[in-house]
Amino acid sequence: MKAVALTRYLPVTDPACFVDVDLPKPVPTGRDILVAVKAVSVNPVDTKLRKSKGADVVENPPRVLGFDAAGVVAAVGPDVRLFAVGDEVYYSGDITRSGANAEFQLVDERIVGRKPASLGFAQAAALPLTTITAYECFFDRLGIDRDGADAGQTMLIIGAGGGVGSIGIQLAKAAGLVVIATASRPETTAWVTALGADHVIDHRGDMVAQIRALGMHYVDHIAVFNDMRHWEAAVELIRPQGGIVSIDNTDVPLPMAAMKTKAASLHWEFMFARAMFQTPDMIAQHHLLSYVADEIDAGRLRTTLDIVLTPINAATLRKAHAMIETGTAKGKIVLEQF
């Protein structure tokens, strides 16, 4: 089968950072399904993994990256119960296994959802990783009620223009929350407004002053979807007994005294944790992706796709990684068609 892989961990400026390879077609066992991949999207975690080791480290066999994918079930393992051959699916894979940048991929059915029927493969591939991340941030980590019992509460999304923020705005609005999104450029401000944000502030400015200017002294929930350089502002803004959730991989010291005084909580989100550790509730990702598919088909949520590149090959994937590394991408970048 065709695949795009790396043999060394190189900067995106090096044309050899990805190579086109032919690999054996995998065979499903257990609860695995074999998916014929039709479209994949690129996430910041992909770029981090591509440069996660030294350039002198050689991968043999080549390593296939990629998480978000949409495709068609081509074969199933003997213990599969949720899907059948021919089903259209979308998913975000498992960080411990071979990735989605290949014609065929094995994935555990418990972290796969049915593809929204109203979306094409490229539109669907834009969603899984960011959707799982935002959903788990809000409803699993912060404990917000998905069905509206917490309607009217406020949610500050820092870094709202990216992939996680783009679906996060929609999920928060669907739960009835008042969403304050941060954006620092005119195009991302327009993007988050179109997605439903009630207010937009600039995270490059004084966020505390901007929130107070909106007539809010505190906010009920804060999601940090870029990095933790905004920690002090977040601590100042979170209400007593409120919660902050972050997806950042940080070694920055985080002063906690004010968090203790407020009895506020900090949560970490890593959407790969369930599959990585085979947690008893691993199937929750199947359920949440299927729920989101229903919401999309009902017109209550929309894809966060921004750019589609073709075909799926080394040159195009390198281009997508370069776009992600600018730090200015909004929504999702998707590759389709081998």
Automatic annotation (TrEMBL):
Keywords: Cytoplasm, NADP, RNA-binding. Residues 296-338 form the FHA domain. Gene3D superfamilies: Medium-chain alcohol dehydrogenases, catalytic domain, NAD(P)-binding Rossmann-like Domain. Its main location: cytoplasm. GO terms for molecular function: oxidoreductase activity; RNA binding; zinc ion binding. The keyword Amino-acid biosynthesis does not apply. It holds the Pfam family ADH_N. NCBIfam families: adh_fam_1. Homotetramer. It comes from Yoonia vestfoldensis. This is Zinc-type alcohol dehydrogenase-like protein. One of its GO terms (cellular component) is cytoplasm. InterPro entries: ADH-like_N, ADH_Zn_typ-1, ER, FHA_dom, GroES-like_sf, NAD(P)-bd_dom_sf, Quin_OxRdtase/zeta-crystal_CS, Zinc-ADH_QOR/CCCR. It is found in: Cytoplasm.
